[in-house]
Amino acid sequence: MLDDPATSSNGRHTIGEEFPDLNNTDEDSESTSTLALFEGDDGGLMFAQRRALVQLVREPFISAQTHEREWRALVANPRPISSRLNDMFMILELDLQREVAFKRQATPEGGGRRFPTLFYDHAWPREETIVLLFLRTRFHTEQAAGNGRAFADRDDIHEYLGHFRPASATDKAADRARVERAIEKVYKTGLLIGRKTATRFEIARAIEVVMPMTKLTELLVWLRQENGNDRATSSENALDPPTSGVLDTMPAESDE
């Protein structure tokens, strides 16, 4: 999960008593539905709210940039959705500044036995981790230069990963296929915006939340160690990457 808890100083909020009043005036989104959507439906959320809840459970995050409808439904009245996540031992985190929402596993107060979970710990492989690192570094560079948007070319990603390929790796076709699979996996998270087969992607703003600067620094240290490791000539001998933040906790029913 993310390194530090939600705080108002960085625009991130844990839904609870401290969550600010969003001054919503949309009566339809403020109220809960009394219309059943199917036979025997006893649910209390509007259709748009249910859709947002499903996306929050299924995906690592949702954002205004990648899930516009779900984001609008969520911020219009986050408490009912947060309540249903709480029923599943999850906590809703909202970053209003970057317009990103994600869930994290709840932990018992004072420690004790862990709550049941719908998540499993998912460690990202080497190639995918380096792709994430490239995207976060590119995004940070563009933001520092005053650019509002950041882009990544597919060929640039291949070139970047090529710098960390061991000298013993001579099967270029297999290496390229691994990188393509890594790009596809990162694309599925929503961090790459554009057509799936595009040669250029926009990097989603959510990457700031998914991979904060502390995590970026940790991954850079790992990459230097991994690249300087004489034993790292195969996937079996390579150093294990550190966790990549929100993306490391995936729904238990994930196909991955």
From TrEMBL:
It comes from Amycolatopsis carbonis. Residues 18-30 have a biased composition (Acidic residues). It comes from the Bacteria. Residues 1-31, 231-256 are annotated as: Disordered. This is DUF4194 domain-containing protein. Residues 1-12 have a biased composition (Polar residues). Pfam families: DUF4194. The lineage of its organism: Bacteria, Bacillati, Actinomycetota, Actinomycetes, Pseudonocardiales. InterPro entries: JetB.
